[in-house]
Amino acid sequence: MHSTLEKLNEIYPDATCELKYTTEFELLISVILSAQCTDKRVNIVTDKLFKRANTPSAIRDMDLGELEEYIKSCGLYKNKAANIKACCDELIDKFGGRVPQTMDELITLPGVGRKTANVMLSVAFNQPAIAVDTHVFRVSRRLGLSDGNTPDAVEKDLCQAFDKEDYRNAHFLLIRHGRDCCHSRNPDCRNCVLNGQCPSAYIV
């Protein structure tokens, strides 16, 4: 394991997906809802939503306004609701109601970009993939793991830096470090386990 991951793993041995779900479809909807929203908020919303509807057909049959009310507190709810409804249509019409298991197929779904697809591949299907969200993007660049200016470029660099068997843990560890220590504003460099090797320590 890469030395950076080893140190982060010592601090966050329990780092894992914080979204609550019971099926691949529930995870997909949760990840779509998580855009610019905290996992804690998404879990509150989906706890109620999935009791009402937790399959593509059930959500497709919901009135759009009703779906919007369920997810309103997640932000960008109108756009997310439209994407979720359209995604359910695609899942039913093109994939027999099942979530596809390849990048090429996943990114054809409305509301699903490369980040969401990588989460699905890694978490739901146990495939080697690194999803680059805002935390992963920020922390990777600060640590010197990537100098990429786009999520895709950072993803490529991380895939070269880490062994495939560590991709899943790398995603969770970098997210957790971004949330708990390497904040967007005022990162806690003083108490960071990586401050001795981080090129951005104390100068961010």
Keyword list:
204 residues, 11 helices, elongated
Characterise this structure:
- The protein is mostly helical.
- The protein is built from 11 helices and no strands.
- The protein is 56% helix and 0% strand.
- The longest helix is centred in the middle third of the chain and has 19 residues.
- The chain is elongated.
- The two termini are 27 Å apart.
Q: How would you briefly describe this protein structure?
A:
The protein is an all-alpha fold. 56% of the residues lie in helices and 0% in strands.
Task: Please state the overall shape, judged from the principal axes of the Cα atoms.
Answer: elongated
How many alpha or pi helices? 11
Helix content, binned percent: 55-70%
The poorly predicted ranges are none
Mean pLDDT: 96
Quaternary state, please?
A: single chain
Structural class: mainly alpha
In total, the number of strands is 0
Strand and helix order: HHHHHHHHHHH
**Largest sheet entry:** none
Strand content bin: under 5%
Radius of gyration: 18 Å
In angstroms, what separates the terminal alpha carbons?
27 Å
